[in-house]
Input
Amino acid sequence: MIAGDFNSNPFYWVDHILPLPSWRSQAVNVNGFMRSRGFVSAIPESATTFDYLGMHLDWIWTAGLQSTGYRVLPLKFSDHHAVWTRVEFE
Output
């Protein structure tokens, strides 16, 4: 299981400072990389995990485990939402 904030946003960053809209979300690349190594996302790409523009920045990927449920929970003290999944061994 690999989980965390991967900042997979729909912007191209100039010198890591200036965000410009991108035609393709970084989530596509991150998800493709993880899938190529046998991982699947426990949280659908359509889920919002970050308040700004409804982005999906936080992920949980599993390999050898089957997600049997997940939740995305807004937090009052963070702009990121809490994410969790329940898993079973395959």
Observations:
- The radius of gyration is 14 Å.
- The mean pLDDT is 91.
- The chain is about 10% helix and 40% strand.
- Strands lie at 2-5, 11-14, 18-21, 40-41, 58-62, 65-73, 82-89.
